[in-house]
Amino acid sequence: MTLTTSELLLVADQNLAEFCREQARWLPDSQLVERDDVLWVAAGTRFAGGPLNCVVPLTSQAVAEPEAVLRAARGHFSALDRGFSVYAPSHFGDELARACVAANLTRIGDAPGMLLEQPLALGSQASEVSVRAVETPTSAADFAEVCANAYEALGMPAPVTRKVFSMPTRWQKPHWRAFVVYEREQPVSTAALLFSHGIAGIYWVATAAAARGRGYGELVTRHVSHEAFKLGARVVILQASPFGEPIYRKLGFREITRYPLFLATKT
User: Fold this and answer.
1) Is residue 56 scored above 80 in pLDDT?
2) CATH for 129-257, options being 3.40.50.620, 2.40.128.110, 3.30.420.40, 3.40.630.30
3) Among 162, 201, 246, 256, which is 20 to 30 Å from 28 by CA?
4) β-strand partners of 56
5) pTM as predicted
6) What's the CA angle centered on 24, arms 19 and 28, to 5 degrees?
7) Quick check: 16 and 201 in contact, CB under 8 A?
8) Which residues of 92-116 are buried (b: 16+ CB within 10 A; e: fewer)?
9) Per residue in 59-73, pLDDT tens?
10) What pLDDT digit, counting tens, does each position of 189-248 carry?
């Protein structure tokens, strides 16, 4: 059965919310609270940007009074002595985003929510290049180091990224599949799949700075998308970074919404 647009948006939101929960589970001491269709995530770091400390509305009704949501968020995260980020999905309307602007939160992202409804061909790759599942402590460390290198360009300090992946037993689970691209045995690119709600979300797509421009982002995206459908995902979703968006559009991902992201610093 083909999913309707509203159903696609629902499962995409739920997969993103589960990703945020998982980031906190990976990094204790963490706190997850879900109240009035709003998810509050606090991971074991005070880094406020992105999913590690964030507010995620789960329904349009949750943001009917956006100023109240922000007041509650200020109180919640102030008690934890940290700042936080707010996701403001565009398909819920623009009221939450406008409230964030009015409250002087800093807009730090506007990722398109994109999806793929059919498998991609794997494509060809050079003999010295391989794509391998993360299954050993060494490959887990390689995955973490590529991400630490790459995500600095998106404003995430390398020590924070390394901390996120510092407990591999917490993220090497059956509902996750992580992959590393190697060139002549050097790790150069990564991507991971999170399975939930009948779909798969692509996260932690990264290419080391020294290896950019060689097609590894496309290679790893083709690979993980193929893997997702092979394992039964009805669709594949992602939230694209500015680096990845052109690649995903070229591959056939289509935009169904946007996820503006706002940063509230510690007060």
Assistant:
1) yes
2) 3.40.630.30
3) 201
4) 39
5) 0.95
6) 155
7) yes
8) beebbbebbeebebeebbebbbbbb
9) 999 999 999 999 999
10) 999 999 999 999 999 999 999 999 999 999 999 999 999 999 999 999 999 999 999 999
